[in-house]
Amino acid sequence: MRFALYHLKQCGWLMDVKQVKRKVLLIGDGAVGKTSLIRKFVTDRFDDKYITTIGAKITKKDLRYKVQGGDMLLTLMIWDILGQKGYTGVQASSYRGAEGAMIVCDLTRKETLQSTVDYWIPELRKVVGEIPMIFVGNKCDLIDARQISEAELESTAKSFATQSYVSSAKTGENVEALFLKLGEVVLNYTPGGNNRASETAPRTISNLTDVTDIIIQEFCDSFGDQETAMAAIRQQFSLAGVDVKNPQKAPLLKAVERLAEVEKGFKDDFSVKSSLSKRKRLIEQHGG
Q1: Is 35 exposed, middle or buried (0-12, 13-18, 19+ CB in 10 A)?
Q2: pLDDT tens, 11-43?
Q3: What per-residue string of b and e applies to 138-175 under the rule 16 or more CB within 10 Å gives b?
């Protein structure tokens, strides 16, 4: 099916409009520009200050497509996924229900493309199987610093039977086109036999990153609303001084105390104390 693509705000309403909603992901290493791409697309703004995404942030954007027989209003639920490796539990919970993904690398850091092959796509497929993807090489404006060629990006994308694009969240180059293309491929997607997730191996806890991952995941599961839970975690982790890139014992202990205070609003006292005790025990065991 071919689409004529344009933004909702750029066109008038027609009487017969089909409405659909799709969950899509932006995944890739930290600091590749996932958050900046979303911000540029949704608000047309760019900020070169890097702030680590904790858990996942969710942004909504409506797009309108011309399809055979009329118009279609697509609501993209865009999930900006934590770019630190090792948070497999948090990432897996964010992947569930996704129907498309933008795989993002930084053209100035060669290792970020290899990470998509070695870590991000395998971890994604463990949860959702083979969903539609597009590859994006961001920061194409930094020509002198480039370490990944368009040919390398294209070759990697072809190995997964998909397409690749370069972009700049700073200048806006190709940003709108990327999201419109992602919307097109998810609208064309019909789940088949290759979208079955593989079995998940039992979790091994070996460091404080694993512990932090478990704390975030369990808090979200008990809260029920992942989007609101992630907002609470971001706030409490920030106040406690937790750095998810390199979590340390003392800030984590402060953070779980803060999370316990939040949980008093929706859990009984015994459950709150039990969860807090378990979290502290894990931190002490793996915090050195």
Answers
A1: buried
A2: 444 446 788 999 999 999 999 999 999 999 998
A3: bbbbeeeebebeeebbbebbeebeeebbbbbbbeebbb
